[in-house]
């Protein structure tokens, strides 16, 4: 009985920490769709960019502060430039945006292969040590990842619901025409949204790279994960992304611990198929924020 309880607590704690990062990854993806109505297929590559920005900062001896700063600013700037340089011109053609961002994603991955090859790279360790809960041992990094992810998610909710710019994001997500009638510039709001999503992706890349390793293809699995989460939660819904992340995260960790680690990537796809069959609009439909 004690052993079963210990395993259950281990799964709950591990899933809670990892799902917080999954939520952070998915929110950036759903923000862009919620506001601009387009899917950013370069989201996974932006996560990879965040990881390698931190890696190069470490190579240049900038330490942990430099790695954190690089992992946030470089992906955020990239996302902003991607919007201004390409996406803004194609906003009325969602399919073209998908194709364009997919091509950009492939270019980034191939550029990393050219400069770094296919070998995984180790990032600066954000924090060392371990902590113990219910007889199980966890990395301190996972605890920091959980806390930081939830702080960022909380700040985003406050920003969206209680600031002028945040309310502008809400207005544009509901109606571009309605927002323009009250003087809100959709292009400016879209740019801000892309920059925020890029920064979130960069932070996720930093944590993933520090926890595991960084390689050119690391963003591919995260793009599939993001898509699965936002479809489950309801494309465009921040709350749905958080709940979808925890649903998939808990199922994934339970599957890995109780059945086989080889089934880790299968859990999101199974949930995705079930939701598409039972409730295609997702748990929270097309709403953006509450």
Automatic annotation (TrEMBL):
A single Gene Ontology CC term: plasma membrane
GO BP, sorted A to Z: amino acid transport
Pfam (any one): BPD_transp_2
Main location: membrane
Keywords: Amino-acid transport, Cell membrane, Membrane, Transmembrane, Transmembrane helix, Transport
UniProt keyword Cell wall biogenesis/degradation present: no
GO terms assigned for molecular function: transmembrane transporter activity
Localization terms from the record: Cell membrane
Topology in the lipid bilayer: Multi-pass membrane protein
TM spans (from-to): 62-83, 95-115, 141-160, 191-212, 224-251, 258-278
Family: Belongs to the binding-protein-dependent transport system permease family. LivHM subfamily.
Descriptive protein name: Amino acid/amide ABC transporter membrane protein 1, HAAT family
Protein source organism: Halorientalis regularis
